[in-house]
Amino acid sequence: MELIESIRSRRSVRKYTDEAVTKEQIEEIVDIARFSPSWKNSQSVRYMLILDKAIKDKIAEECVMGFEWNTTIMKGAPALMLVLTVDKRAGYERDGSESTSKGEHWQSFDAGIAAETFCLAAYGKGLGTVILGVYDEAKVVEIAGVPEGQKVSALIPIGVPAEEPQAPKRKEVADLLTVK
After folding, report:
1. Cα separation, 74 vs 70, whole angstroms
2. Helix or strand or coil: residue 161?
3. Which DSSP letter does residue 19 get?
4. End-to-end alpha-carbon separation of the chain, Å?
5. Secondary structure class of 65 (helix, strand, coil)
6. CA-CA distance, 139 to 66, in Å (whole number)?
7. Which among 130, 124, 120 has a CA at the least distance from the CA of 158?
8. How many domains does the chain have?
9. What are 53-101's pLDDT values in tens digits?
10. Is this prediction's pTM over 0.85?
């Protein structure tokens, strides 16, 4: 699949078939996503794959802050990827001092780049994804057993798509680009 066509055609998938996602499939996708750029090559993004249905469903039921649509999406997906960041690495010097006025923002920035790279790689392998941002981080950390010193940046349900969502309307380039 050509890169530009993949960027234009990848969609957020919210409905999945019952077909299982394997650890080996995800390893291939993470092997691609690990080439995402990061702050000073800090490579601070980590991935936690949830294949255990009981854990996935508990996250779906207890961590969505009342946003039931995310419960439905996660429960319908055969797997859930947690995108994690090593805390206080991106945007910081080795001595712990901030490298930029953006502070922790760079953790989120790097996680966002890595999450989309992960989603594009999954799409290239025939899997669908959607990046979810409405969740109670403390509860996700507790239920999933996220290692100390890492933060949850996104939840990504993943599976074989059971739908082909249409592209939402996009703004025109003239609305997005300022040239001076």
Report:
1. 6
2. strand
3. -
4. 35
5. coil
6. 13
7. 130
8. 1
9. 999 999 999 999 999 999 999 999 999 999 999 998 888 887 888 888 8
10. yes
